[in-house]
Design a protein that fits this description.
This protein has strands at residues 2-5, 8-36, 38-56, 59-74, 79-93, 103-120, 138-166, 175-180, 183-188. It is mainly β.
Length: 189
Amino acid sequence: MIIHKQNLALTTERLKVLRVIGEKVAQVVVESEIPINAIKIDKIDARLGPFEDHVFENKVVKQGIIHKQVFYVDTKNFVRHIAEDIPYMLTVEIPGVKPSDFIEIQNHLVDIDTDYQLVPRRPQPLSEDKDVDAAARFILRQKVVAHILVKASEWAQVDVVTGVQLFPKINSMQRSFCHKKHNLVNIVM
């Protein structure tokens, strides 16, 4: 498309772009306790797992999993590993967002930290739950805090200037020279 403005000719092109509606950093805090037969915790790695975003009027509900890997030393001095998935849900207020086929939610993990305590386990009566380790002598209590940047954007079409041509202004005051009987006469037009 070419637009003519006074002494300019602008060339534009229509592009499909993501227009940011709003963004906000949300905090997730989750706790868990697992029985473990450990004498020492080496490290705990936590990361965000799969998630889903649900868009409502002026808010986004994020539902997902925090995946943790616990590395520990057992009572026989062997390094062991267990994995744990903890579900979470959070709500982020973003004014102006509403459900639409053109909405896109972007999620960026800002940081994630884990705090834990290894505490002695009280003797438990025999349980029929086969997932609980009856020989575990300790309970691993954990808290995970994660900050997630949630950005709501909408697909839109915009016209972008891709070229500018400037036309020189013609000066209406020009000098012309005429010869008349060998006399030069300046004529101003």
